[in-house]
Amino acid sequence: MNLTGNTILITGGGSGIGLALASEFHQRGNTVIIAGRRKSALDAATAANPGMKSLILDTEDPASIASAVETLARGFPKLNAVLNNAGIMRAEDLRQGATADAEAIITTNLLGPIRLTAALMPHLLQQPSATILNVSSGLAFVPLAMTPTYCATKAALHSYTQSLRYQLKDTAIKVLEIIPPWVATELMGETPTDPRAMPLNAFIAETMQILATDAEEICVQNVLFLRNAAASGKESGLFKTFNDSLSQLAH
Fold first, then answer.
1. CB 26 within 8 A of CB 6
2. DSSP run (H or E) holding 208
């Protein structure tokens, strides 16, 4: 991916990985539009990054997506990249028989990127070159049992990304997948300095290095043990060890 000269929309750009990537792309001379539901977070991000743009967007709402895409096409005709980063992660006790969290996670993490990508497709196809970047997770390959629907949506997004890439192979649109490990953010309310997580700045630096190559999957070193678990024949054992260790730490 060319890391300069783009006009890029980043969903979930008000915090965490989305904001860190937005700041990095902004510093490299791209026109960056961050999108999200919380105006206060977007305002704080743009204040800290003069020249960065923002847009209210609720990826759970098809009407909000349609309105945002209309605004983008009118205000940013050179928009040539979208980074589908917005996501929510919640612990679920499947023994309770409740589905409200699962439905919200599916709508945000899976339907959101699918709907936004579909809505932007006619515009992106008109660009000389364009990029769609989907943020999945190492948990798409070895799930964390306490967050079952989150992991399932990321596995589905990985599969969707593969098919999207194939269908667009004869176009000027590149389709990339960023596959983070556990990164020190506040995705589930945890402290961003948790020593078990990869530091955010280290993740961003390594991710940008890989994005500069021709790689279709952006996998930092810390996530390879999850991404390659099935190919290495270690998926079953790793799933048990991984979940047993995290379960013990949680109690």
1. no
2. helix 200-211
220 is written with which tokens?
């930092």
Question: Measured between alpha carbons, how far apart are the two ends of the chain, in Å?
Answer: 43
Q: Tokens for 157? A: 């997004």
The tens digit of pLDDT for each residue in 118-129 reads 999 999 999 999
Q: Do 103 and 151 contact (CB within 8 A), yes or no?
A: no
Please tell me the pTM assigned to this model: 0.94
Q: What are phi and psi of 176, to 5 degrees?
A: -120, 155
Tokens of 236: 């079953």
Condensed to tens digits (0 to 9), the pLDDT of residues 25-72 reads 999 999 999 999 999 999 999 999 999 999 999 999 999 999 999 999
Q: Which residues are known catalytic residues?
A: 150
The domains found in the chain, sorted by start residue, are: 7-250 (3.40.50.720)
Residue 161, SS3? helix
CA 65 to CA 55: how far, in whole Å? 11
Identify whether the C-beta of residue 14 lies closer than 8 Å to the C-beta of residue 44.
yes
Distance CA 111, CA 5 (A): 29
CA-to-CA distance for 144 and 149, rounded, in angstroms? 10
Using DSSP, state whether 147 is helix, strand or coil.
Answer: coil
Residue 165: Cβ within 10 Å count = 18
In angstroms and rounded to an integer, the radius of gyration of the C-alpha atoms of the chain is 18
Q: Which residues of 98-117 are buried (b: 16+ CB within 10 A; e: fewer)?
A: eeebbeebbbbbbbbbbbbb
SS3 101: helix
**For residues 153-165, average pLDDT:** 98
Contact between 153 and 105 under an 8 Å Cβ cutoff? The reply is: yes
106/104 Cα distance (integer angstroms): 6
